Amino acid sequence: MTTLKQTLHDYSGRRELSSKERNIVIEVYKDCTSLGLVNFVENIVADKVNKIDSNIPRELVFAFVSRLDSDKTA
């Protein structure tokens, strides 16, 4: 059983999602935007991604969704 300290240590150096994780986030993001879910999209995507793979750090999902939103509006 992993401890909280070990889990925090494992994620402390992560600054980006892997390509597999990015693909998961992108698919969920596309699903949400196609349904017109624009308010609190970061939270909705993070919750749905967590159901698919609970090992993906929520903070990295928030950051990636923000980047997707900014690319979409640019």
| Range of helix content | over 70%
Number of helices: 4
Number of domains: 1
Radius of gyration based on Cα positions: 13 Å
Estimate the strand proportion: under 5%
Largest sheet: none
Task: Please state the oligomeric state of the protein chains shown.
Answer: single chain
Q: Would you count the extended β strands for me?
A: 0
Distance between the termini: 45 Å
Taken from the alpha-carbon principal axes, the silhouette is globular
The low-pLDDT segments are none
Query: What structural class is derived from the secondary structure elements?
Result: mainly alpha
H/E element order: HHHH
The residue-averaged pLDDT reads 83
Overview of the molecule:
With 74 residues, the chain is mainly alpha-helical. The protein has one domain (21-73). The protein has four helices and no strands. Helix 2 (19-34) packs across helix 3 (41-52) and helix 2 (19-34) crosses helix 4 (58-73). The longest helix has 16 residues, at 19-34. The termini are far apart. The model has no long low-confidence stretch (mean pLDDT 83).
Blueprint (SSEs and pairs):
Blueprint: H1 4-11, H2 19-34, H3 41-52, H4 58-73
Helix pairs in contact: 2-3, 2-4, 3-4
In short:
This protein has 74 residues and is mainly α. The protein has helices at residues 4-11, 19-34, 41-52, 58-73. The chain starts with a helix and ends with a helix.
Descriptors for this entry?
74 residues, 4 helices, mainly alpha
